[in-house]
Amino acid sequence: MDHFLYQDGELFAEDVPLSCIARQVGSPVYVYSAATLRRHFGLFRQALDWTEHLVCFAVKSNSNLAVLKLMGDLGAGMDVVSGGEYRRAKAAGVPGERIVFSGVGKTVAEMRLAIEGGIRQFNIESEPEMRALSALAASMGAEVPVAIRVNPDVDAKTHEKIATGKAENKFGIPISRAVEVYAEAARLPGLKVVGIDVHIGSQLTDLAPFRAAYAKVAELTGVLRAKGHAITRLDLGGGLGIPYRRDNNAPPLPIEYGAVIRETVGHLGCEIEIEPGRNIVGNAGVLVSEVIYVKRGEDRDFLIVDAAMNDLLRPAMYGAHHDIVPLVEAAPGAAVQPYDVVGPVCESGDTFQKGAELPGMAAGDLIAFRSAGAYGAVMASEYNSRPLVPEVLVEGDHFAVIRARPTFEEMLGRDSIPAWL
Ligand code: LLP
Fold it and tell me: Which annotated residues bind pyridoxal 5'-phosphate (predicted)?
């Protein structure tokens, strides 16, 4: 459930009409609902309330400082994958002891930043990375907590670009070599092995792959403990999918996901970490956009809107579906017609949806792309020299701009022309 609902025929974010935000901030604009963020975080916390746990918000899904501050104030940890994300988590007031650092290509500079600033654990993804971290930590006189990410070779049954748990993917160390890698980790200076990490992919709509992966982690926990490793923490990654369509095929709920965790690893007495991103923030955000033109094609009508693939990349990149709804609710029984909803960018891939069923639309009408809170603003670019879309956070009956639209002066000011040109 989210807090984007029609009231008196108008789409609201909590108690604020989205049209009011579009009027004041301009279009396109990303709008997030604080109540929805809190609610979704609470669902994960509740799903794991049977054990000691930390819900680490996947910063990559939405890294706006206000969103991170809101999550951090609820007690969330953070899962970061770059020095930049680490800095964001810290800037939002999250203590290092609640930050886990994932990612296949952490540089020494990034690792140093996190050791100096405080870190809950590094999720190590390869032996070279493990040796580099050991050398660095030892040189700093530090002993850093580590989990090793294992690749369980499980098919997450999601889009191939966001599946990460098969042997062919670049992530983690093959689970078949885990014993030898843990043995080396235990020997290396500067590292303190605390647990096992796994993440098999994103937008999973079935619990079976989680169950398979976590069962393998449970088995590995037993094997490693028998070899003398103190496995006290399991980081089970993120990935629980969200409903992108309002139909009856909703993915499992956090509570059901929590039950799978309990069933597979609950008996081990480990502290549990999870790293959800999309499930917390995806349906807590919409992208509001204005119709620029309605264009008659040979055999179809195009709705040319002022948002484009650079602002919301998911449809172009993954063929992803985002429900498109008018801000003014169609009258019951009103006629709908199909539109190809497209942006102004000069590529045919700049198509949000073909044949979207909408009431008759005209230039100046406002629409919302739903489920745009995760992997929306964070994946935006200035392609075609389009300014990054501003972000707004709604709380009850008020809202604040949490990232302003850059001015063209700022955009142009980042470039410089060498004196010799
Ligand atoms: N932990 C790790 C190690 C991850 O790689 C990811 C996502 C997450 C947690 C969070 O997964 P979530 O709960 O959000 O599914 N840009 C793509 C999604 C990429 C996900 C990458 N990793 C999209 O728009 O669908």
Answer: 239, 275-278, 375
Dihedral sign from CA coordinates of 271, 273, 279, 284: positive
HSE-CB of 26 using CA atoms within 13 angstroms: 11
pTM: 0.97
Does CATH number 3.20.20.10 belong to domain 34-280?
yes
Q: Is the separation of the CB atoms in 114 and 101 below 8 Å? A: yes
pLDDT digits (tens, 9 = 90+) for 206-258: 999 999 999 999 999 999 999 999 999 999 999 999 999 987 789 999 999 99
As a dihedral over the C-alpha atoms of residue 303, residue 306, residue 311, residue 313, rounded to 10 degrees, the angle is 10
Class of domain 4-31+282-413: mainly beta
Q: How far apart are CA 203 and CA 220, in angstroms?
A: 25
Would you say the CB of residue 278 lies under 6 angstroms from ligand 1? Answer: yes
The closest-lying atom of ligand 1 relative to the alpha carbon of residue 123 is: 3
> According to the model, what pLDDT value does residue 161 have?
87
In ligand 1, the atom with minimum distance to the C-alpha of 81 is 3
Report, as an integer, the average pLDDT of 35-61. 98
Q: What is the pLDDT, as a whole number, of residue 164?
A: 86
The finding on whether 199 has its CB within 6 A of some atom of ligand 1 is: yes
Residue 164 CA to ligand 1 center (angstroms) comes to 9
The atom number, within ligand 1, closest to the CA of 202 reads 15
Query: Per-residue pLDDT tens for 252-287?
Result: 999 999 999 999 999 999 999 999 999 999 999 999
User: Which residues on adjacent β-strands are paired with residue 373?
Assistant: none
Give the chain's end-to-end CA distance (angstroms, integer): 56
What ipTM describes this predicted complex? Answer: 0.99
158 CA to centre of ligand 1 in angstroms: 12
Cα–Cα dist 419/138, whole Å: 45
Evaluate whether 199 touches 170 at the Cβ level (below 8 Å). no
Q: Which secondary-structure segment (H or E) carries 37?
A: helix 34-47
**Residue-wise pLDDT tens digits, 384-394:** 999 999 999 99
What are the boundaries of each domain within the chain?
4-31+282-413, 34-280
